[in-house]
Amino acid sequence: MKRIIATLALPLAALSLASCQQEAQDAADAEATAGLQSLPVSINASMVGIIDQSADFIWAVGNGDMPRDDHDWDQVRGAVYDMILGGQIIKVPGTGEFDEQWANNFDWRQHSDELTQIGQDALPLVEARSEDVEAWRAIGDRLVENCLACHELFKPDVPTQGILHESTERESRGISIFD
Question: The domain 43-172 is classified under which CATH number: 2.130.10, 3.30.9, 1.20.120, 3.30.465?
Fold first, then answer.
C-alpha cells in the first residue's frame, strides 16, 4: 500500500505543479489579450500628434512633393505606419472629455478603422517608393474624405483644446515637407 501511495504521489505532485503553472499562464494570457484599456493622453492629442502629422507626409507626396532620399522615404514610411497604428490607437479612450463616448461609438470606430485601412493601402506604395502621384493623391483623397466625415459627426469645431502643429503655414508657402 505504501508503495502504491509513493508511486501515485509523484505524478499527483507533478499534476498539481502543472495546474498552478497553467493558472499563472492563463492569467498572463488574459492580461496580454486584454489590450490597452486607456490612453495617458486625450484622443485629440493622439490625433494631432499621430494622425495629423502622418497625414501631412501622405498629402505631400500626393501633391507631388516627392521624397528625395532614403531619409525622406523613411519619413513617409513612418507616417504610413503611424496611420495604420493611429487608427487603432484612437479607438481607445484617453483623458479627453468626450473620449469614452467617441471610443464606444460605432461610427467613430468605423472611421478609425478606415484610417488604418488607408495606411495599409499606402504601405505597398511606400515600400515600392512609388512616385505615382495619382496613386498617392487617391490615398490622400480618401484620407481627406474620411477625416471630414468623422469631424462632421464628432468634432465640427476644429481645432479644439488649442492643439495645433506648424505644417499649415509651411504648406501654404510651398515649402517642401522634406526640407
Answer: 1.20.120
